[in-house]
Amino acid sequence: MLEVETLSKTYGKKQILENISFSIKPGEVIGIVGENGAGKSTLLQMLATLSKPTSGTITLNGQSYDTRAKQIRRQIGFVPQDIALWEDFLVKENMMFFEKLAWTRKSPDQLKQLCSDVKLDKWNEPVKILSGGMKRKLNIAITLIHEPDLLLLDEPTAGIDLKSRKEIGSYLSKLAKKQEKMILYTSHDMDEIMQLCDRIYCIGDDPFYQQVLKSYGKNPILL
Amino acid sequence: MKQIITTRLMHWKKQWISLVFWLLFPLIATISLTMITDTVQEDSKVPVGIVLEEETAAVKELTEEIKAAPFIRMEILPEDEALHNLEKHELDSVFIIHEDFEENIQQDNRTRLITGYQSDLSLAYSPVKEMIISYVQQETGRAKAAFTVKQLEQQYNGQENWAYEEIIAKSKSIQQEENLLQTDLSFLETPEAADDTSKLFPVWALWGVFSFLSTLLVFDWVIKEKRSKAILRLAFSRWSLKSYLLQNFMLYMVILFAFDLAAAGAFYVMFNEWISPVNLLVYRILTSMAAFLFANLFKNQFIYYTVSFAFVLVAAIGSGALLPLESAIQSKWFDSINPLAPLLSGEYINIWSVFMLLFAAAWLFRKEKFHA
Q1: What is the ipTM of this complex?
Q2: What is the pLDDT of residue B322?
Q3: Which of A48, A101, A148 sits opposite B7 (nearest CB)?
Q4: Of the given ranges (A16-20, B16-20, B220-224), which has the lowest mean pLDDT?
Q5: Rounded distance between C-alpha atoms, residue A139 and residue A78, angstroms
Q6: What residues does A9 pair with on adjacent strands?
Q7: For B45-178, which CATH class?
Q8: A101–B3: do the CB atoms touch at under 8 Å?
Q9: pLDDT tens for residues B22-60?
Q10: Most buried residue among A179, A182, B181, B306 by CB atoms closer than 10 A?
């Protein structure tokens, strides 16, 4: 379980996030929405241990981020907004490269299966010729190599076709329900968020997203 | 480490052509440049034809002397061919050493020993002529002295009964031992006998410069990989960014040193040039450290390449490795910051090496970007 309590972040004099508290249970998919610059990526960076909060506490499965960040990283899978792949490598080489550096060992067959699970069947293709959707799928597959408990996805479907978006969404939903993963997801696509997430948090003061969520019949939780 | 080797091999598989090129570049460039300068040096010598009408010890001695002249390329030819080549200006001048040369010298007969031919484009006629005259005078003088010694011995009823050849040999050995003019030319405090086999560019200095450049260019992987978004994934792997970079650095250093040893072997076989493996190892460690730390300072690889070329150029000129500038030789301070010093003079502890070690320690103990 991920627990965030009174989390704040400031850059210089600028307050990015203030007193944010929420929690995620295993098997839950949480969506985070908000306008650009509201602090979604900053929140994800802190949850991924890549940035330190100014104040507040975060614990994952009872372990505090302050004292056990290195151990906690083993339980986190972070899918960055950018495509974090070796473009010159083949799909299988990317998978094998990051498997070599991962904590858990996986056979080539298991890695290939992981790609199939996210509907990526271009095992022997170079990454540079893949479509945006395929690259996004590979971006997710690599993150799952070390079998993290908490999956943090920063706009994982940005700029890709509808089919790939649906496939990714469906896979993430399955992953949460069947494997009891905790998934935190940011996106600007309201349809996708509505379909996928158990709860939706709204960051920022802009009432636009709150109104949109209400129009979908959902009550946004303000952070 | 096994995992790091595997991942590195995956990278090398994609860029093996450029990697092999830069690993072999110092060796190939040094061999090519040395061979080209050797050929140019040989071709720039003035061709002089020598015609031998007899082949005695004195003639052999004279031809050896002409051959040893650094600016002359001597060719022994038949008279007709030599004169024909002179007419075609393929030879600068021709000298015919006549029959009874040795006998005439011994009898102090200095006329018509040699006939010289020159064309209107001759450059070396006068110096070669002077060289021959000097030799003839020296040898006739020696012969005259030998006869005088023998005469004096007979006159004063000496018991030694020295042979003529014995006196000549003794005279030559005294000349060798008591030679007034004996010059050794040396650069950068390295005594080196001046002989006709010395090269325009010292092989190891040349290799040092090319190797420094190739090391800097090989280490561009640091910039490329640090710039890649994929490197962010290291935060969620068994290796931190620092340990990933460090282990890869060691891997590169080992492979570069293997190629250094191959170069040492090749230079020994081809040019009979040897260097202490310790010098080579210290140079490799310091140069790799410099390239690694230097690359860490850059985000743009093209700026890094430009600065690297400029850096190597300054090191090459300043150290006197390529251009033996008098001012550079005199400025001892440059030696202490010269990256090539550990290789060329075996000076391991200087400002350069201390600076590298401090810089490396600072990099090693600094806080990582991704906090733990």
Answers
A1: 0.85
A2: 65
A3: A101
A4: A16-20
A5: 10
A6: A17
A7: alpha beta
A8: yes
A9: 999 999 999 998 888 877 777 778 888 889 888 888 788
A10: A182
Closest in B15, B237, B372 to A101, CB measured: B237
pLDDT of residue A93: 93
Containing A63, the helix (H) or strand (E) segment is strand A63-64
Nearest-Cα distance to chain A for B343, in Å, is 37
Q: Check A80 against B234: CB less than 8 A apart.
A: no
CB spacing of B236 vs A80 below 8 angstroms: no
The domains of chain B are located at 2-39+201-364, 45-178
* Residue B185: per-residue pLDDT: 46
Average pLDDT, chain A: 87
* Contact criterion met (CB < 8 Å) for B235 and A69: no
B88 inside 8 A of chain A by CB: no
3-state percent breakdown (helix, strand, coil) of chain B, nearest 5: 65, 5, 30
| Whether the predicted pLDDT of B296 surpasses 80 | yes
Residue B178: other Cβ atoms inside 10 A: 7
Measured between CA atoms, the residue of chain A closest to residue B369 is: A50
Domains of chain A, with CATH numbers? 2-222 (3.40.50.300)
CB of A96 within 8 Å of any CB in chain B? yes
Per the CB < 8 A criterion, the answer to whether A24 and A177 are in contact is no
User: Which single residue is written with the structure tokens 């971006």?
Assistant: A139
Tell whether the model's pLDDT for residue B90 goes beyond 80.
Answer: yes
